[in-house]
């Protein structure tokens, strides 16, 4: 097996450093989503510049494109992305579920796993628990997620129950496959990848409890909050996120999967979540919604508007504005360029705009998680 984990390489100076085990002790950490193997519009050096410490990619999408044999030939996902820091991988359960829910012709979900029928005339793909683990290990992931059977909060009670039953069975199978693979490979054992279980149960507290207790008993390095974190009205599922955190013993890190709105990150970090991943901050950047601190070193109060602004770059009032997006941003976007210039780049659809904007929002997320870490530290001191 080639060296897919890049363990021997020195960490980058800013961001991109540290091993996954050390990330468990600090935090919180926001992981930008490189769903298709790229945080759109940025390179690995841009991510380092933005202070990104860990990136999340999607094993399911990479399995479809470019495919596992290509990735293996290119040295695994980290070498493929040019990323030297820790890498987390989603099993793809959520994405496959979203596609299948959207259109049944894309496949089906049963006790064996997700059967996916890709567009075109390729063979159908079965993503079961063992395959999900094998794929993530072959990618060279540092934090792997068990395959889970995702539901929407509004799915029927029967669906939620079935999902929890399957999620537990698949988590057990994932753990067996993971333990076996590590026992058979000295290199994998040395790399110390971490395996996270994923909690399902929709908005039913008793199902969340059944799922959490079963997963804690199977034993994982950490746990993810699974299912949609936002309800149909756009509200964060705060009660379920809180309950799930309380159901998992505090020594285990928890990941709020798919949570990336600054306000939601603050709420979840205060509930005790350590990891976040979402495409929202980077997608917002590309679409012109930029996150800006309005104070040098803000106390993150309960009101978002007290310490941050959403700046919409398309807004006409920025045309002749020579100020940077934020005077409290240390990135290349704000060191050199004015709001007026960024608006111009956006208007002429130059590729420089999404790159600068993405770095800007990622720097904001890094600073936000740093501030949340300091807040958490200060609170522990007072206890
Ligand atoms: Zn900036």
Radius of gyration: 21 Å
- Overall pLDDT, averaged? 91
Residue runs with pLDDT of under 50 for 5 or more positions: 1-16
Q: The biggest beta sheet, please?
A: 8 strands, parallel, barrel
H-E order: HEHEHHHEHEEEHEHHEHEHEHEHEEHHH
Number of helices: 16
Relative helix content: 40-55%
- What ligands can be seen in this structure? zinc ion
Major sheet: arrangement of strands: 1-2-3-7-8-9-10-11
User: Structural class, from helix and strand content?
Assistant: alpha/beta
DSSP strand tally: 13
Shape call: globular
Strand content of the residues, in percent?
5-15%
Straight-line distance between termini: 49 Å
Describe the structure.
This protein has 383 residues and is α/β, with parallel strands linked by helices. 45% of the residues lie in helices and 15% in strands. The protein is built from 16 helices and 13 strands. It has helices at residues 20-25, 44-49, 59-64, 68-73, 77-81, 93-102, 129-139, 157-184, 186-191, 205-218, 238-247, 262-271, 280-287, 332-336, 339-347, 352-382; strands spanning 29-34, 55-58, 87-90, 107-110, 113-116, 125-127, 143-145, 194-199, 222-225, 253-257, 275-278, 289-293, 308-312. The protein has an eight-stranded parallel beta barrel with strand order 1-2-3-7-8-9-10-11, surrounded by seven helices. Helix 10 (205-218) packs parallel to helix 11, helix 13 crosses helix 16 (352-382) and helix 15 (339-347) packs across helix 16 (352-382). The protein starts with 19 loop residues before the first helix and ends with a helix.
Secondary structure: elements and pairs:
Blueprint: H1 20-25, E1 29-34, H2 44-49, E2 55-58, H3 59-64, H4 68-73, H5 77-81, E3 87-90, H6 93-102, E4 107-110, E5 113-116, E6 125-127, H7 129-139, E7 143-145, H8 157-184, H9 186-191, E8 194-199, H10 205-218, E9 222-225, H11 238-247, E10 253-257, H12 262-271, E11 275-278, H13 280-287, E12 289-293, E13 308-312, H14 332-336, H15 339-347, H16 352-382
Parallel strand pairs: 1-2, 1-11, 2-3, 3-7, 7-8, 8-9, 9-10, 10-11
Antiparallel strand pairs: 4-5, 5-6, 12-13
Helix pairs in contact: 7-8, 8-10, 10-11, 12-16, 13-16, 15-16
Bound molecules: zinc ion.
């Amino acid at each position: 097996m080639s060296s897919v984990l890049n363990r021997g390489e020195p960490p980058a100076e800013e961001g991109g450093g540290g091993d996954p085990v050390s990330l468990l002790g600090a935090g919180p950490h926001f992981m930008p989503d490189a769903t298709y193997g790229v945080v759109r519009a940025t390179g690995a050096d841009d991510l380092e510049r933005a202070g990104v410490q860990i990136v999340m990619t999607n094993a399911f999408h990479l399995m479809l494109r470019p495919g596992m044999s290509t990735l293996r030939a290119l040295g695994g996902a980290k070498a493929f992305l040019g990323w030297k820091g820790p890498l987390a991988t989603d099993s793809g359960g959520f994405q496959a579920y979203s596609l299948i829910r959207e259109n049944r012709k894309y496949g089906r979900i049963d006790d064996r796993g997700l059967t996916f029928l890709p567009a075109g005339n390729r063979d159908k793909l079965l993503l079961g628990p063992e395959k999900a683990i094998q794929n993530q290990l072959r990618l060279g992931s540092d934090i792997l997620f068990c395959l889970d059977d995702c539901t929407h909060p509004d799915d029927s009670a029967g669906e939620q129950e079935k999902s929890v039953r399957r999620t537990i069975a698949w988590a057990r199978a994932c753990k067996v496959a993971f333990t076996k693979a590590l026992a058979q490979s000295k290199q994998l054992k040395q790399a110390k990848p971490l395996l996270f279980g994923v909690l399902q149960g929709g908005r039913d507290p008793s199902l969340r409890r059944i799922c959490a207790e079963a997963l804690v008993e199977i034993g994982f390095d950490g746990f993810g909050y699974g299912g949609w974190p936002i309800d149909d009205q756009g509200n964060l599922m705060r009660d379920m996120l809180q309950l799930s955190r309380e159901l998992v013993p505090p020594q285990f890190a928890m990941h709020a999967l798919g949570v990336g709105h600054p306000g939601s990150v603050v709420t979840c970090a205060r509930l005790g979540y350590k990891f976040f991943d979402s495409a929202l901050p980077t997608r917002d950047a590309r679409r012109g919604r930029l996150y800006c601190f309005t104070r040098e070193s803000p106390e993150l109060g309960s009101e978002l508007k007290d310490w941050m602004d959403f700046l919409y770059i398309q807004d006409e009032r920025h045309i002749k504005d020579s100020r940077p997006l934020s005077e409290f941003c240390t990135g290349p976007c704000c060191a050199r360029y004015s709001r007026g210039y960024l608006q111009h780049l956006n208007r002429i659809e130059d590729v420089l705009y999404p790159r600068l904007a993405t770095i800007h929002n990622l720097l904001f997320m890094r600073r936000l998680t740093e501030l949340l870490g300091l807040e958490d530290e200060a609170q522990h001191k007072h206890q």
